[in-house]
């Protein structure tokens, strides 16, 4: 239809990527332990289904929150009418405190600097509208969440220029990669407005190191641009290190209340940490009053339901709950990740060593026919249609190296995970090279393990080294 | 800071208009029957607070809906994870049925053509993104809801060109006004993509006549444009003539599967009929292509699954919806009549209305001069001296000074009485007796005129469309 906008007639929603096509295949033939045991197991959905029991038990003990009551009195009218885009004060306060708690109370968040949005999808798009003109660019480290192609670019007209990261250094962000991305943007005649990182990373499952964060802050300072840190997975950090937020780094470098701190913005959401994607709760945190003011008005286009704000302000205000939840959530994620990692290892498959997230970044390069993206897609199709596992191919995340896949572990039961690992093992061993690979893999694995430890040590110790290309 | 976008630094959010400034004054000094009896009474907020008891009593009898339960089983997990932008099927079914019920089941809505959005604010913006490119224009009859300046234009880059309507014919949309607006857009070098109407109208409180709807369909048909009908107030029609949706007219003209029907889109919401603006429930109803694009765009403003579930239970209860719609309309009618007669007592007329949560009040005779400056002066007096927040017509882009939108459904009856008393004291003032008498005379002749206007409006359905 000629009369529709170019946004509609072009493909900017990015919905044709394999990321979404795998989902469609799953929808046609979804696994069910009893009803469809041969169906496809969904491992492409980064959901956190491990801790619902904790929330359900809280709800059972705190019935007022869902029943729209306060101290036994109905506050239905008050909630029904509450559409103030400044958000419910108790809720913003509870969100600010929860964000502080996740960061070990090392930094403080001011509720007045929070803007609520209908999910981080809305928060990210709104930030783009506030920071970029159509045709401006943001630099994003690869691999990145496929949804960003839609969320950041589609209706805003902003562009994404990748900061290429590679397996040679555990996909860490380097200074030269940053500079190269910046130059590439210039070549394309795009004005760079900022950098957007996801920390912890999706799809890598790793938290940014202090060194990378320092690098980023220095970079945006020297270029006078913005830094958006999407910390949606901050509460899924299960490694033994602490999560370092960009706010920690600003504080450590004594940059709070400076010009550069006004160009650092955080995005958060309850969709991953609390496993509540259906409730549409996102937030922007900014030190720039003008951004907070503009984003607040823009939030009219995606406010959080007052019914939901009320429920969650009660939940998050309960510090006993939040403290117990965060600890237990991390424990369960750690144990689930270990299960996936060791299961993969017994099939000769390694993962990038991860310490956060709801997925592993899996190395299947050795299973490719050739070192190409065509081969990656071939392998992916085999895994989807033959092994009946929906996983996300690295190319859908804009990875520059073929052979990496994102595999989720927190959106299914333990039994289902075991079943998936069985299927994979069978597949790997049954392929012609598979039998050879299994043995080779075992050897390779032993030496890889040595190497992974080195990489890990490499990564962790970076904080003490001088930043330079790796 | 040079590093922010123009959208963030400019004024197109329209938040500086008097519409919002009145609210700010109210926030500083809000009326409270006991705690602040001299405070400002809010009459600028089109909320429906008249029928909460009906919903509260339903909630008390149906606790499962709010408690994440279905037939005694917890469905918390299912809801917590449900983020499918196609929306909860039971909710879309219930919404489609409710919309059909609102139109006397004279038309039938297909749930598959519904897109759920976080309020009509989000629905309208999304439709703009789908139908128009930056620099394109939509034609809107004046006066119109001030929020459209932000919702339709701000982030989309779309322009609004007014279709000028005047009191000469009860602010009806005429063919020549439509043509005039179209020409004006061309003069401004803007490509017109469509027409957007609010039916029933905000701020007029009137339903659009069948004649106007026919006129609009002919116009968009000839010019190959879209027609968006924001029917957010469709459930607030409290007296005749009954509500006629553009969908009905399409059906009557046997245009249901035609090209033009693919360019007709409806926007709806539960914020006014059910009084639930806090729950952020809006919809777009359209054809396949727009539904597909708008569905993806709805990712940026999905309705909380917690809320979808609660409302699907509420709206699926046909006993509830039938009783609610009827009772809501009765209460709105009574409240409307109270405001109208209270205003009449002080010689103030309203546009005769049959819907909405407000009246379109004629205070032209109180202006010191027939100018918008005089209107703002009067408005300031009303806000600061009479302590009533009402919305001046200029904030709604009315092209005649002296009209005000006054809300009646967002307060108790007692508060409305207080407001009317204050107005009486302001109008009657010191020389109350003489003024009262001349007002009474004036009122009698105005009533005659008003009846004529009303008859005029009603009988239009039988006449040939032509400028009035």
In short:
Chain A has 470 residues and is an alpha/beta fold.
Describe what you observe in this structure.
The complex is a heterodimer of chains A (470) and B (468). With 470 residues, chain A is α/β, with parallel strands linked by helices. Helix content of chain A is 45%, strand content 13%. Chain A has helices at residues 6-9, 18-28, 52-61, 63-66, 76-81, 89-102, 119-131, 148-153, 175-187, 210-223, 246-252, 289-298, 306-317, 319-345, 373-386, 414-430, 432-460; strands spanning 41-42, 69-70, 73-74, 114-117, 136-141, 159-163, 191-198, 226-230, 264-269, 282-286, 350-351, 359-363, 389-390, 392-393, 404-408. Chain A has a seven-stranded mixed β-sheet with strand order 4-10-9-8-7-5-6, sandwiched between helices. In chain A, helix 6 crosses helix 13 (306-317), helix 7 packs across helix 12 and helix 14 packs parallel to helix 16. The longest helix of chain A has 29 residues, at 432-460. Chain A is globular. Mean pLDDT of chain A is 91; it is low at 450-470. By secondary structure, chain B is α/β, with parallel strands linked by helices. Chain B contains 16 helices and 15 strands. Chain B has helices spanning 6-9, 18-28, 52-61, 76-81, 89-102, 119-131, 148-151, 175-187, 210-223, 246-252, 288-297, 305-316, 318-344, 372-384, 413-428, 432-458; strands at residues 41-42, 69-70, 73-74, 114-117, 136-141, 159-163, 191-198, 226-230, 264-269, 282-285, 349-350, 358-362, 388-389, 391-392, 403-407. Chain B has a seven-stranded mixed β-sheet, sandwiched between helices. In chain B, helix 7 (148-151) links the parallel strand 5 (136-141) and strand 6. In chain B, helix 6 (119-131) crosses helix 11 (288-297). The longest helix of chain B is centred in the C-terminal third of the chain and has 27 residues, at 318-344. Chain B is globular. Chain B starts with 5 loop residues before the first helix and ends in a 10-residue tail after the last helix. Residues 431-436 and 448-468 of chain B have low confidence and may be disordered. Chains A and B meet through helix 1, helix 3, helix 5, helix 7 and helix 12 of A and helix 1, helix 3, helix 4, helix 6 and helix 11 of B. Chain B: One of its GO terms (biological process) is ethylene biosynthetic process. Chain B: It catalyses: S-adenosyl-L-methionine = 1-aminocyclopropane-1-carboxylate + S-methyl-5'-thioadenosine + H(+). Chain B: GO terms for molecular function: 1-aminocyclopropane-1-carboxylate synthase activity. Chain B: 1-aminocyclopropane-1-carboxylate synthase (ACS) enzymes catalyze the conversion of S-adenosyl-L-methionine (SAM) into 1-aminocyclopropane-1-carboxylate (ACC), a direct precursor of ethylene. Chain B: This is 1-aminocyclopropane-1-carboxylate synthase.
